[in-house]
């Protein structure tokens, strides 16, 4: 199975294009390439019910981030939403490039 090239990576700042969190932006915490999903910090929050345990005798309801499909995310570079292209740098290595500004994305 080959690895997929995705337009977003861990640590990128992205904006949500659709859904309840549309227009909000955050930092990518985890990317799941096999599922085409990513977890974005502070977005797509869900409630997780925890059962009582020996250490925690009363159960709790935890708020946590749920994965978002990457087609609903757009990379943000310098506060501007942009598409992502690829081109070779001076060493012959493929790098991501912002289509709007032309700058290399680290």
Tell me the major beta sheet: 6 strands, antiparallel
DSSP strand content: over 45%
End-to-end distance? 26 Å
How would you state the average pLDDT, rounded? 92
> Going across the major beta sheet, what is the strand order?
6-3-2-1-7-8
Number of helices: 0
CATH architecture of the domain at 13-79: Roll
Identify the overall geometry.
elongated
Radius of gyration: 17 Å
Annotation, overall tally of beta strands:
11
Can you write the helix and strand succession as a string?
EEEEEEEEEEE
CATH topology of the domain at 13-79, which one?
SH3 type barrels
> Looking at the chains present, what oligomeric state does this protein adopt?
single chain
Determine and state the CATH class of the domain at 13-79: Mainly Beta
The helix content is under 10%
Overall structural class, as computed from helix and strand content, comes to mainly beta
């Amino acid at each position: 199975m080959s690895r997929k090239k995705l337009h977003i990576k861990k640590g990128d700042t992205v904006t949500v294009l659709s859904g309840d969190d549309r227009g909000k932006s955050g930092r990518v915490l985890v990317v799941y390439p096999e599922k085409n999903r990513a977890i974005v910090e502070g977005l797509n929050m869900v409630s997780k019910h925890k059962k009582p345990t020996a250490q925690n005798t009363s159960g709790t309801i935890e708020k946590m981030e749920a994965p978002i499909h990457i087609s609903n995310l757009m990379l943000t570079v310098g506060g501007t939403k942009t598409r992502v292209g690829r081109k070779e740098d001076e060493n012959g290595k493929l790098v991501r490039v912002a289509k709007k500004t032309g700058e290399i994305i680290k």
